[in-house]
Batch of 2 targets.
Target 1
Amino acid sequence: MKNLYKIDIKSMLLASVAATVLSAGALVAMPGQANAADPHITLMGGQTKGSFNRVVSGWAAMITKQIPGVNASAKGSAGSNANIRAVQAGKSEMALAFASDLHDGAKGIGVYKKKTADVRYVSFVFASVGHFVVKVDSPIKRLKDIKGKTISLGGPGSGSAKNITKMFKHLGIWGTFKDVYAGKKSSDQLVNGKVAAYNWHPGVGSGMIRGTANATKIRLIDMDVEAKASGFYKKFPYFEPVTIPAGVYPGVDAPVKTFGTGALLVAHKSVPAATVYKILKQAYSAEGRKFLTSAIGGRVKQMTIANGNRNLVAPLHPGAAKFWKEMGKKVM
C-alpha cells in the first residue's frame, strides 16, 4: 500500500516547538471578538504535552480571534476514545479523534457497545503515527518479541492504546505480555526501566518521544512489516503505512516504517451548520492557515483540500458537507 502521508521532517520538528507556548495558555477561552452571549465551542484534545492538546489549542485560538460571534476553548482529555464519547454525550461540541475510533463508534463495534450516532465528521487534520519506543539495547526487535514483558500501551481509554491493542490482537500476541497504561508517564517509566517499551500515536516529531530520546538512547520498532504480512491494512482500512523520516528523534538516524491513521476534527450533530461552515472556511483560508501554522507548526501542511475529507468513516456534519461540496469534494 502506498504511503499516502508525506512527512516533512523540518516542519514536524517545528510543530512541537511552535505549539508549546500556545498550548500552555490556550486551554481556556481566549479574548477575541466574541462576548459572553456568543456561541461557545469546546474542543477536546488529549493528554498534557500531547499533539491533540496542542492542535485543539491552536484551533480554539484561531476560532475566537478570527471568527466574529464564535468563542472557543480547548480542553484536555484521556484521548481519542474519550473524545468520541464526550461528543456523543453532548459534553463537548467538537474534538479531535482517530479515524479508527470514529469508524468503530459509528458502527457500534469494538469498545463501543452502542453506535455514537450523534458524532459527525468535520475534517482531516493530520496523520497520527504509531511509535513503539524501546531502549537502543532492548532485545525487542519486532512486536512479537514483547512476550513476557511489561508494555505501556498509552493512556487509559486513549486512542493510542486502542490502536495498538487492535494490532496485538490481530497478530495473536494479546495476553502474552503485561499491559499497563502509563500515559504521559510512559517516557519516564521506560527511562527508569519500569516498562520495556511504550506505545504512543502522536504526530511525527512528538515532544514526549524527543524527551525520551534525550534522556536515553532509543529505537523505534518497525510495525509496518508485521502489519503488511498479517493483512492488518486489509482488515482495518483506516490504517495506512507511514514512514518516520531519519533524524526526527535524537539518535534515530534511519527511517522507520510504521502505521498511522487520520486525526480528525469531529462535532456533535447539534452544533449549528453555519458555525461549522464558518470554522472550516476560516481554517482553510490564507489567514486561518497562517495563524494555525504559527500556533501548531508544520502539521498544517497536511491539512489540505486534497486531504480534507480523508478517512471519511462517518456521516459528514451538514456544515462540513456544505464546505467540502464547495471545494469540489464528494460528500456522503
Target 2
Amino acid sequence: MYCSSFYSAIKRVNCFHRDGYGAAGCNPSGSTYMVVFGLFQLLLSQLPSLHNIAWLSVVAVATSLGYSFISLGLCSAKWASHGGHVRGTLAGAAAVAGRADDDKQAAFNVLLALGNIAFSYTFADVLIEIQDTLRSPPAENRTMKRASAYGLAITTVFYLALGCTGYAAFGDHAPGNILTGFAFYEPFWLVDAANVCVVLHLVGAYQVFAQPIFARLESCVACRWPDAKLINATYYVRVPPCLLLLRTSSSSSPPPTLAVAPLKLVLRTIVIMFTTLVAMLVPFFNAVLGLIGALGFWPLSVYFPVSMHMARLNIRRGEIRWWMLQAMSFVCLLISVAASIGSVHDIVHNLKAAAPFNTAN
C-alpha cells in the first residue's frame, strides 16, 4: 500500500509537470502498483533467510538517507520561500479555531500521530534476527547495541528535523506524507528521485520484517506435521546462470541450482497475497501505519525487551528498578492504546468516503 502511493506520486508529479497542475487524468489508482510490488516480493521471499538479502539492507539504508535529505531540503526551501515565517502554532489548528469539532479532531490527530511515531521505533521483532546474522568477534550484542544506539539517534534527529521543518513550511495544512500528499511537484526530477528512493527502501524493508515471520510460520507448520514429506522436502531445480543470485550453497547438488521447498513456496505466497489484498482493500497510508505501530509498539518494543532484561539481571519484584521499568511499560501501554483509538477512528472516517482498490493519501 505504502509503496503504491509513491509509485502513483511519481506518475502524478510527471503528469503535472507535463500538463500543468490539476490536469485531468493525473490521479492514478495505486492498485496496479500494489500488485506489481506483491509480485516482486514473491520473488524475493523465496530467498532462504536474512543472510541472503544483506544487499537489500544496504540499498534500504542508502535510499532512506536519500529521501530523508531530499524531503528535508524541500521543506527547508519551502520554509525559506516565505521569509522564514513559521506557519501554524504550537497549540494547533483546533485550538486557534476554538470549535468543539475541531478540538475533537485535533485530539484524534494527536493519537494518530503517536501511532505513526510508534511505528518508526518498532524494530525489536527483527533485532534478534539481525543480530543472529552478525559475525564475532566483536560480540554480537555489543555490535547490536552500538548499531541500535546510532540508528535511534540518527532517525530521531531526522524525524524531529523533518517534522519541525515541514510544519514550519506548511503549518496546519501540512500533509500526512510530504512526498505523496500534494506538497511538492517541482523540481519534478528531485521529487521523483525521492519517491524512487522510498520505493527501493520499502522493497528491502518488507523483506527484513517479513523474513522472521516466514521463518516462524514455517517452523510451526513443520513442527505440527514433522513426518509429512511434502512439507519437509526440498527439491533442487536447475536454473539459468542469470539466476545465480538465488542459487543454493549446498554441495549435494550441482550448480547452478535453486532449492525449492513446497512449504516455503506455498506459505510465503499466501502471506504476501493476503497482505497485498489487505493493502488494496484498506488503502489509507497514515491510518494503517498508525494502527500497525500502535499494535506492535508495546508488546514488541517495550514489554518483550523489558521482560527479558529483568529476567536476565534477576530484578526482583518490588525493587526500585522493577517499579521504574513497570511504570515505563505501563506508560507505553497507554500510548499504544491511545494510538490505536486514534488510528481506528481515522480508518473509520476514511472508509466513509473511500472505495476499495483505490489508493488514498
